Amino acid sequence: MTNQTTMPKRQWTTQGAGWTLAAGIAILVLAAPMFAAESAKDPLAPDAVDARIQKHRTAAVTLTITRPDGRPLAGAAVTVEQVRHKFLFGCNAFGVRPQDTAETQKAYQDRFAALLNYATLPFYWGNYEPQEGNPGADRVRAMAEWCKARGIRTKGHPLCWHQVEPKWLAGRPLDEAEKLQLGRITREVKAFAAGDLIWTWDVLNEAGNMPNFEGGKGAIPQLCQKLGRVELISRTFAAARAANPKAFLLLNDFDTSPKYEALIRDCLAAGVPINAIGIQSHQHGGYWGGKRVWDVCERFAKFGKPLHFTESTIISGDTKRRGDGKTRQNDWVTTPEGEERQGREVADFYRTLFSHPAVEAITWWDFSDAGAWQGAPAGLVRKDMSPKPAYEALAKMIKKEWWTGPLVLKTDAQGKVNFRGFLGVYSVRAERMAGTFDLASPGPATAAVRLQPQP
User: 219 in helix, strand or coil?
Assistant: First the structure.
């Protein structure tokens, strides 16, 4: 999918409060009604996609800049630059090992932090607490602190899931299993709220097949059978909310059928405090295509909740393979032609999702082919951490096409400048002073920043 009407980089200037815009942007603004009509006919047309990105991901800003004493910074050259996206571009960060000094680990960390602002961290109960009462909090805390130091928002995944139960949970009475499960949620959410390390959680994972998983023999499947899906979801979400009233809570599933829609509808009717709907999109057998991606967004957007694509894969190898979801296939390799295909499809996938107003996060799964789920060549980088075309395509979009600045502007007599920018956090620098402001909402916007002296 080509981009016909992107915002030009480094082409905007302001003289006082007036506008000087590249001709392409002016044409885009004037043609908005036409694009809206086109979108109704074909939402995947390149001009419709780009028009939605402009509408939902950018703002026309009037920024007022003042000196430390509150006086307007009048008639001064200023540099305005985006430093963080509002949109969450993420990946699981299971491969981050902060204490590892190996070159491949350094490359993993550098490439991850250079591209992404969102990371999923592992809380699979059976692995996190293999011995009862001895959770692996220190290991995950080190990963969370690594992310926080780099401005990367974190999410814990998952708090309740039936596929990785602790072995010591087997045979416990269901009342006790429920108490342990809810206690586990309370413990993790409280522990990582401290220091603001993690406040976003996949609370319950894959409720659709939970009661009958492997014949319904595990403790969590049996608990789900006893309580019912909605009641178990309600209790787990209540525990997470009580542990951190400010937490951002997701229900997550790979099922994109009407069954998941019905479950969400029932949960919302029951008052479950779902903050966002999690949608898995593992595409090992081939890219869904823009039409299916758009259809999924439209169907789940009707609930009025943000959509998070929580586990996304498009592979760079043989798409005809089929696994059982558990067995690792070590001979499933990336290929040059597969990498080129993956790069094109990843770009189309992200562009479609970024243009949909309900979507606020995309999480890739996994960052590297090394250790990837099922052994599939699904990484954005190869096993040696060299970037694939998919990584390069995302870097071009996220850090260039969908990134604003640095813009060199001049304030008017009231210290104001105008510009259009992508939503997120910005820095402002002028005369050895600096400050930041947040651009949170699309459309016309006003913002203010009081600069402070810098060494």
Answer: helix
